Amino acid sequence: MYVAVKGGETAIDNAHRLLAVERRGDPAIAELSVAQIREQLTLAVDRVMTEGSLYDPDLAALAIKQARGDLLEAIFLLRAYRTTLPRLAESQPVDTGRMRARRRISATYKDLPGGQVLGPTFDYTHRLLDFALAAEGAAPTEAATSDGPAEAMPRVTDLLAGEDLIEREAATEEFETPGDLTRDPLDFPLDRDLRLQALARGDEGFLMALAYSTQRGYGRTHPFAGEIRMGEVEVEIVVEDLPFPVVVGEITVTECEMINQFKGSKTQPPQFTRGYGLTFGFCERKAMSMALVDRSLRARDLGEEVTAPAQDEEFVIAHADNVEASGFVQHLKLPHYVDFQSELEMVRKMRQEIAMAAQPPEGANAADD
Amino acid sequence: MPPMTDARMKTGKDAAAENGTTVNATYNFAFLDEQTKRMIRRALLKAVAIPGYQVPFASREMPMPYGWGTGGIQVTASVIGPEDVLKVIDQGSDDTTNAISIRKFFERTTGVETTEKTAAATLIQTRHRIPEAPLSEGQILIYQVPIPEPLRFLEPRETETRQMHALEEYGLMHVKLYEDIARHGHIATTYAYPVKVAGRYVMDPSPTPKFDNPKMDAMPALQLFGAGREKRIYAIPPYTEVKSLDFDDHPFELPTWDSVCAACGAADTYLDEVILDDQGGRMFVCSDTDHCAARQAAGHRGPGPATEPRR
Questions:
Q1: Which residues of A touch B18 (CB under 8 A)?
Q2: Every domain of chain A and the residues it spans
Q3: Measured between CB atoms, which of A8, A13, A84 is closest to B27?
Q4: Could you give the CA distance from residue A72 to residue B65 in angstroms, rounded to a whole number?
Q5: Which of A217, A279, B31, B200 could join A283 in a cystine, given CB atoms 3.0 to 4.6 angstroms apart?
């Protein structure tokens, strides 16, 4: 007698056990500690924090360990942890102009107040495998440090704004209480605050591909990397009864401001426009991609014709979140017996109908299908 | 590793005890915090007040992936209480992996009693099926919904479809169904077959086979629909009219089987096809495993696997 397939529960338990064993790998090799990941895989930690929307290097490192190095899975773990955390306060906008910058470059000016600071970048390394790294143990030589107090670093876009060559940012009142897409469902069309929020959480690969497409002619924006800076900024909150904001901590962020050509319109003279990118930690590729896509998505606001995918707000924002995308793509692994059964019936019925129609009406032998 | 708070340490331990069914003390009852539940309940109330209308809600990230039932899980988490008895099915069965996973999640986070018996459950979370046994007043059927918008594959833009619903402009859907008839001689939609609720909103019944559509009509139980990734909730209050879209000269048709269930002999249930060998041998069994088991326990027998391959 046939009984419906059973045993799913044991199978799941066993799969989880196997997963734990595979995650650990060869027990003869020392186990990777969360601290090691936090200190030595910092760029992975930064990406997980950025797209996981939670600034916590320890938890991000733990997520990477638990996810066996699968960063999208780690992002998912962090998001699922973040989702239940209480909202204790809303911070003041961080002032990146006061950043203790460890890196600051501009592609539009050879030199500028505060100077160009290369910082810890891969940019000018030769991508040759360093076999010396395979032999562990040697500490790198001490990094060079500059002496003297750091010079102020005004933002490049502020320098341009002095001449009215670049659009002014919207008055701050408009964004006094920015939206929160984790607390309110998105309602298209979006304002720029929510768009930037969605892009900041968006998948780096997806945004980079879209950004790249604008460079290849699908909605050209003529961008210049006005400024990229990375370093520490203070996070402040306003506590009731205190007349001044209180610093609750310091976070590392990467900021990118793109400067884009704008031909002008009936009401506005030609002027440069902006694209903005911001990430936790050091996620420069993401910040640049985000800035390019942000500018493209402003096409509608700036009265430009919307022709390319990167300019299409619903297309970009609805598909940028990799936790959503990964879940739905992979849900195809779930059983679909019932729906497939319906389709089977339909295809059979349609084939039968076609066969019947093709059959000679009387006297002929019935086709055996 | 730097110091972590107590709560985190506990979470880590509980996560490690993945297979346990103990109630998890570090998370709130049913995982979601009370503010979130309240927000979802408000959306549910609105959904019940406007049958078939898709209410946007601030869907949360859940510890399961999107597309795996996060909408249904959030709805269940918001309405479940300690006295509830929960049944979870996927494809009609209590024993498919994802149904087990969701049931275990609620066992861990609520400690409520769970059941496989349709009649014994107060809450039934489902994916792709409605149980065969009629539901009764006081029961709640919670559907997991992947794409809540019935017009989505006709018009990809939310801004457009929202307007179409507002203006009750469902011509596009009727054109699609008409084109089916023109091309195939009948409507070629077999699951997620669109319905009109209470004479107003066209609604996606989620990817249940159209076989289940008539069960939604005037159902004594409350029907709630949750779409997590798409952030929408909708509902059908008890005893509400649910009509499958059709035409006067092409009325809605139910699929029929030439076979009966090989296990219990039922001739009026939705049947899954089971492949027996690589020679084309197959048989059909009830997709609703609880219904089938109950019939077998009551002495009903089907013809067994020897069923002739269907033409």
A1: 16
A2: 9-82, 96-122+149-320
A3: A84
A4: 11
A5: A279
